[in-house]
Amino acid sequence: MGRTYLVEEGIGQYLAELSTKVKPYVTGLLIGQCSPQRDYVIRAVRTPPKEQQQEESVGPPKLASLDEEWITTHASQVSRMLPGGLLVLGVFMVATPELAKDGQNTLRKLIFSVEKSLSKRRLWKLAEEEVSDRAALQICSATKKVVCRTYDVQDPKSSAKPADWKYQSSLTASWLALGCTVNVNIHIPLLATSPNRDLEKNTKNGLNRWSKQIEDSVFLINGQVKDEDTELLEGQKKLRGNTQLGTQFSDVKVLTQLCQGASARSTATVQVCSGSINLRGAVKCRAYVHNNKPKVKEAIQALKRDIINTLNDRCEILFEDLILNEGPQKKNFEREYHVLPQRLFVPVAGSSVMLSDYKFGDEAAGEIQERFVEMLDQPVQAEDIHIAEDISTVDICPLTDSLSDTQQAQLTKATLLLKLQQNMGLVVAAAVAVLASIFSFSYFSD
After folding, report:
1. Where in the cell is it found (predicted)?
2. CB 3.0 to 4.6 Å from 30: which of 90, 119, 155, 180, for a disulfide?
3. How does DSSP classify residue 64?
């Protein structure tokens, strides 16, 4: 038995409109949410056309000309604009009848390429019990025939499985929302011996350690700790029906554990550093969950991933901006203070779900509107752009502006000595004890 995809009714009209413009094919992404019982598709977004495509010579249609890297890059950009609980569920293709034969093979290849690209950026991994099937939707532009299949992205040898594609009106009109504010104060040391003292790599490593703290945190939903296997709405008054737009919002507090359990051992490590990176601020996080008896576990997992994703995405955007505007050399230890992009939310028409994006302080509303049209094929009114938070910062603190060759040699020597001391800690301690007993004996003999 294959998976069932419940699809927002407006997506059918969107795909039908694309089929009238196809020359000879168009690809795109399916956005939605997985659940154990079924999957939900809330948006379909076409791949933005490349400028050179308009200048290509006319010839027989071929899927071989499809730009895989362009599609995976689009998927990475779109994934940043999705709040917790939403992800790229698959890919679609609207193509002419003569391309139908090769369409499914192309879609399969795209699904695995997109998943590989997205998984590289994540600071979390899919759980064993999670749904790992992704959809490949193929539509014939002439006959309008829809074929939906799935592939297991955890299995490179996965074969196609049939899936049901069912449209439903007001699919997300009363989805459940969870939100929290997380105060961030992350200190990331920059090792003196790290190659080129690469800020981006060090920041990623620091965020990876921080993400594990978030995974181990305690989440209070409306002030209560709830069992993971209970229903999220247990004990709450539910909204009647799903035809009226409404959001049941849960306020969440995140309690980060300050110490390890009594059974866990902790080892202190001394490292020579050339400076540090400090991430400070309060970030707004949000997640959405379907309203078909969702479990607490699903909701908390969606919010955890949003917390981790939003900080990781901001840092990626910051470094990309530095490279674009100031050159690749700015990735290294040259700047001391930066402002992280702020998070904003934009409503989806006819839905309780809001999409997300990030803006720098000098970005105008027009630039954000253009990005939504390009990335998500969605027009946005300036008054619908809601800035969710205050400014967060990245403070880069070098010990010195630059290290001379002599200083670098001294730091390297000090690092080696520290490693030697760590390995010989017990020997040194024993030697000190012996010397103390000798001096003590000598004192009393005198």
Report:
1. Membrane
2. 90
3. G
Is 90 exceeded by the pLDDT of residue 107?
yes
Tokens of 54: 């308009």
Contact 273, 202 (CB under 8 A): no
**280 DSSP β-pair partners:** 185, 393
Other CB atoms within a 10 A radius of the CB of residue 276 amount to 16
Q: At what angle do helices 199-215 and 296-326 cross, to 10 degrees?
A: 170
Query: CA–CA separation, 275 vs 395, rounded Å?
Result: 11
Cβ-contact 48, 374 below 8 angstroms = yes
Kindly list the distances between the CA atom of residue 84 and the CA atoms of 80, 166, 197, in Å, as whole numbers in the listed order: 10, 24, 32
| DSSP per-residue letters across 274-290 | EEEEEEEEEEEEEEEE-
In angstroms, how far apart are the furthest CA atoms of the chain?
Answer: 107
Query: Residue 329, exposed/middle/buried by CB under 10 A (0-12, 13-18, 19+)?
Result: exposed
Q: Residues spanned by CATH 3.40.140.10 within the chain? A: 4-50+61-169
Q: Which bin fits 442, alpha (ψ -120 to 50), beta or left (φ > 0)?
A: alpha
Q: Which residues contact 198 (CB under 8 A, 6 or more apart)?
A: 331, 332
Does residue 147 sit in helix, strand or coil? strand
Write out the E strands in 160-263: 161-162, 164-168, 176-191, 218-221, 248-255
What mean pLDDT comes out for the span 23-41? 93
- The whole-chain average pLDDT of the chain stands at 83
How far is 402 from 408, CA to CA, in rounded Å? 10
> In the sheet where 273-289 sits, what is the strand order?
218-221, 248-255, 176-191, 273-289, 392-398, 337-340
Rounded Cα distance between 14 and 222, Å, is 38
Q: Could you tell me which residue, 270 or 284, shows the higher pLDDT? A: 284
CATH code of 4-50+61-169, in short, is 3.40.140.10
Alpha carbon distance 3, 132 (integer Å): 11
